[in-house]
Structure formats: C-alpha cells, structure tokens
Amino acid sequence: MPRRGKPMFPDGTGPAADPAGSHHERRIRSFQPRRSRVTASQGEALRRLWPTWGVDVDGLSRLDLDAFFGGLPVVLEIGFGMGEATAQMAAADPGTGILGCDVHTPGQGSLLGLAERNGLSNIRVANGDAIILLREMLAPASLAGLRVYFPDPWPKKRHHKRRLIQPEFVALATTRLAPGALVHCATDWEPYAEQMLEVLSAEPTLENLHDGYAPRPDFRPFTRFEGQGLDKGHVVHDLLFRRRG
C-alpha cells in the first residue's frame, strides 16, 4: 500500500484516483470512491492488465467500444463489487462484452484477476463516474444492455437524492441503449425497489417485460452480498425492462 498522499499507481499503469478531475461539474454523487486495502495480487493484476483492459473515465474522449471489445455487443454493468458475479456472467456468455464501471480499486483488481485466471477476454473495467461515462464517452445506441445490481440504497431519507436510479439518470442511460437492449436492476432494499419500479415505468422509451417485478433470471448469479441480505430477512427484487424500438 502507498503511504498517505502518495499515488497508488505513480507510473500511470493503474486506475487514476480522480480521472475526471475538474473537467466536469461538481454534483451530488451516488458513490464514494474507495481505494484502501488493495491486496498484493489485486495491485499486481491492475499494474499488468490495466493498460490493456482498463479505462479511466475522464470524459475527454469517446470510447470506441468496437475496438475495445473486438466487435462484441456490449453490456454496461454499474457497480460490480469484487467481480465474482460479473466473471460468472462473462464466462456463461462469451459472445457479449461486459464493461464494468466501478470506483472500488480492490474490486477492479479482483475482477481483472478473475478475468485473466479464467481466460475471459470479454471483460473490460472502467474506473470512475458512470454518469460521465454515459454522457461523455459512450455513443448513442451503443449498448446492448445495462445492469445495476444492488446499488447503494442510501436508506436515510436525506440521502435519497444520492440514489443512482433517478429519472435524470434513466433518461440519459436510455439514449445510450440500442433498440431492444435490456435494462436489469436488482436490489434487496424494498423502498429502493419501489422507487426503481416507479422511475423505470415512467420512462417512455422503456417497457416492462413483466407485470411489476420480475422473477429472478437464471443469468444473474447468486452472490455473497445477496445471501447476506437474505439472511437478514430482505427480499430481493429484480426489474427487467427493454428499450423500445
């Protein structure tokens, strides 16, 4: 681990601490960057693999998804934790690229390590603010899907404005979805599930594939985080919407 105040990747081979810097307006964020407790193996994976499989969300240039993924259709996953579920989905569907966007440095290193060990060439990692990624770096109708699994519920009422799934975010995200693209959200926080259903249902470019919540689809792996919520008596809700043509 670097000493306090020292960059974690001074040679520029790993994710930047604040890739967007002052290039974009300050606003209320739905996340808190976390860079602590990077293990030796995670740090090594980041140093070796980031130059090829990673991208900093600086908002300064358009990301060429065709070149980045070799022409595969691409699904954006926002918030992948330690990456176990992402790696499982990539292994089960090698014909789809997964662009995982997160700010958790240990999770970024973990996912890249999992991708390498399992020979998963369809995973790439974006470091930074997903809203800047969508707004500044992805072309309209360039995504085959959007996944948001168990985002921070910000349970206190005064923090609800920090929740990711808001009308403004959904309106932006749908402009980057191709016709027929799938939007899949999941949460174990009941009030947030209700908000997600309300917001997604109100977006005119989306249609709900079910009457309300969806049954848990087989392609979403069961995660340790999900199990912890179930142990606490939480109910997991999935939502499946499709971008209208």
TrEMBL record:
<protein>
    <recommendedName>
        <fullName>tRNA (guanine-N(7)-)-methyltransferase</fullName>
        <ecNumber>2.1.1.33</ecNumber>
    </recommendedName>
</protein>
<dbReference type="InterPro" id="IPR055361">
    <property type="entry name" value="tRNA_methyltr_TrmB_bact"/>
</dbReference>
<feature type="binding site">
    <location>
        <position position="129"/>
    </location>
    <ligand>
        <name>S-adenosyl-L-methionine</name>
    </ligand>
</feature>
<dbReference type="Pfam" id="PF02390">
    <property type="entry name" value="Methyltransf_4"/>
</dbReference>
<comment type="similarity">
    <text>Belongs to the class I-like SAM-binding methyltransferase superfamily. TrmB family.</text>
</comment>
<feature type="binding site">
    <location>
        <position position="77"/>
    </location>
    <ligand>
        <name>S-adenosyl-L-methionine</name>
    </ligand>
</feature>
<comment type="function">
    <text>Catalyzes the formation of N(7)-methylguanine at position 46 (m7G46) in tRNA.</text>
</comment>
<keyword id="KW-0819">tRNA processing</keyword>
<keyword id="KW-0489">Methyltransferase</keyword>
<dbReference type="InterPro" id="IPR029063">
    <property type="entry name" value="SAM-dependent_MTases_sf"/>
</dbReference>
<dbReference type="GO" id="GO:0008176">
    <property type="term" value="F:tRNA (guanine(46)-N7)-methyltransferase activity"/>
</dbReference>
<feature type="binding site">
    <location>
        <position position="152"/>
    </location>
    <ligand>
        <name>S-adenosyl-L-methionine</name>
    </ligand>
</feature>
<dbReference type="InterPro" id="IPR003358">
    <property type="entry name" value="tRNA_(Gua-N-7)_MeTrfase_Trmb"/>
</dbReference>
<keyword id="KW-0949">S-adenosyl-L-methionine</keyword>
<feature type="binding site">
    <location>
        <position position="156"/>
    </location>
    <ligand>
        <name>substrate</name>
    </ligand>
</feature>
<feature type="binding site">
    <location>
        <position position="188"/>
    </location>
    <ligand>
        <name>substrate</name>
    </ligand>
</feature>
<feature type="binding site">
    <location>
        <begin position="223"/>
        <end position="226"/>
    </location>
    <ligand>
        <name>substrate</name>
    </ligand>
</feature>
<feature type="region of interest" description="Disordered">
    <location>
        <begin position="1"/>
        <end position="37"/>
    </location>
</feature>
<keyword id="KW-0808">Transferase</keyword>
<feature type="compositionally biased region" description="Basic residues">
    <location>
        <begin position="24"/>
        <end position="37"/>
    </location>
</feature>
<feature type="binding site">
    <location>
        <position position="102"/>
    </location>
    <ligand>
        <name>S-adenosyl-L-methionine</name>
    </ligand>
</feature>
<comment type="pathway">
    <text>tRNA modification; N(7)-methylguanine-tRNA biosynthesis.</text>
</comment>
